[in-house]
Amino acid sequence: MRFGVPLGLLHPDAWRDVAVAADELGFESVWLPEHLVFATDLSLAVYPGTDRPGISPRTPLFDAPAYLCWLAGLTSRIRLGTAVYLYALRHPFVSARAFATLDRVSGGRAVCGVGAGWYEGEWVAAGVDFAGRGARLDEAIEVTRRLWSEPVVAHTGRFYAFPEVAFEPKPVQERLPILAGGESEAALRRAAGLCDGWISMPHSLETIRPRLDRLAVLRDRHGATGDRPFSLTVHAYELAGPEEVPRWEALGVDRMIVRPWRRGRDAVAALETFAAGHLGS
Question: Does any domain span residue 122?
Fold first, then answer.
């Protein structure tokens, strides 16, 4: 089992110290969430399944790949991922360049977690059609794979069209992993058919099973069960202890993003305790 750390659940002032500590303690990865902009009009910000806004316009936002590039220079081995990046809110040239750069400066440690997004307000503000975001993301992933692997690329599609271009440098990793986040049918289908893995929302052992079962069906339908590595990443914030880990492994989960702290100021100490119990640090 690999263990990741969700930096987005901490104040940004703590991200550097926590990332460096996680690297030194043997955690496998750190993860940043991402939004491009928050509108002050909250009428389009109600979080799905609730009656309340899911954002606060005063929340500080950062360019996640750029911030991870900085953390790459402060760390040596830990992987640097997004959970998740609104990939289709930009042209694939922009998104593909950001993650290729991160992979280069980190020596091949980038993980590209992507999602279609739930917050309509920022799509409206950016002038990008919210209703078509899923199909736009699918096409952007397909374009990106070509940019990262082919000497020259030309493309004509529903959302993007461009003449033959060169895209250099390529990522360090032969196949920089793209993981799909989200739990809708479309998100699970995207993970199964286009991506190298799936990132869940926060779950327990009991609540994760239906999603994993559905994902297995979709992967089988796409004929993707054995042709390439496929990772299952679960946000498991309330992990009871080491004895619970084998039960997650039995479900096929190979990465858990954990939050062993209760208060942000205790995060580094909590990571040390967690590493002693789970990582042998």
Answer: yes
Q: Kindly state whether residue 14 falls inside one of the protein's structural domains.
A: no
Q: Alpha-carbon distance 259 to 107, whole Å?
A: 26
Q: How many domains does the chain have?
A: 1
Report the CATH number at residue 142.
3.20.20.30
Nearest 5°: phi and psi at 276?
-65, -35
| pLDDT per residue of the chain (281 residues) written in tens, 0 to 9 | 999 999 999 999 999 999 999 999 999 999 999 999 999 999 999 999 899 999 999 999 999 999 999 999 999 999 999 999 999 999 999 999 999 999 999 999 999 999 999 999 999 999 999 999 999 999 999 999 999 999 999 999 999 999 999 999 999 999 999 999 999 999 999 999 999 999 999 999 999 999 999 999 999 988 766 667 899 999 998 887 889 999 999 999 999 999 999 999 999 999 999 999 999 75
Name the residue range of residue 101's domain. Answer: 33-176
